[in-house]
Amino acid sequence: MASESEDLSAEILDETARAGVSLVASLPDGWIAGLIARCDADPRFRHVPVNREESAIGLCSGAFFAGTKAAALMGASGFLTCIYAITKINYTYQIPLPIFITLRGDIGDKAKYHVSNGLYLRPIIAAMAIPFIELKGRADLPEIGRAIRHSHTIARPVVIGLPRSMLKGAD
Q1: Candidates 1.20.1050.80, 3.30.200.20, 3.30.565.10, 3.40.50.970; CATH matching 4-167
Q2: Were 163 and a residue from 8, 41, 68, 103 both cysteine, which residue would form a disulfide, CB within 3.0 to 4.6 Å?
Q3: Sheet containing 97-102: which strands, arranged edge to edge?
Q4: For residue range 105-114, what is the model confidence (pLDDT) as tens digits?
């Protein structure tokens, strides 16, 4: 019997695949380890683990020029290291890119060292004028497809936030 988080991972990937994404670049994060493993095993996706967040941005952006819809999957701190890559590559060349991130440092995160992510993540996303949605539960999963389509409409990145309560359950 699949666990709640395994079922949720499958549903997140279903929505992502329905939106036409076929390549996913990821970096490890404890909250999304199950999602990454499931993506790696899913034949609908070419999953590429990368060693730097900027590599995920570059890989997915290059895939766009080859006609492949891609998405990046990473932690919040990793996303914060990508500001230059996003503005230089995606904004300059108008490249759509859905970026799934964990909402580390948000309410419910028990890791004190992630507090700075919670303090600065949303203001930085807003300052960059990147459309942002937070998935709070299963009812929000159709927003994944909407966000991916919107990214392609505006030819810019969108950020899809994954809170701990959704990925790991409420405390």
Answers
A1: 3.40.50.970
A2: 103
A3: 46-49, 23-26, 70-74, 97-102, 157-162, 132-134
A4: 888 788 888 8
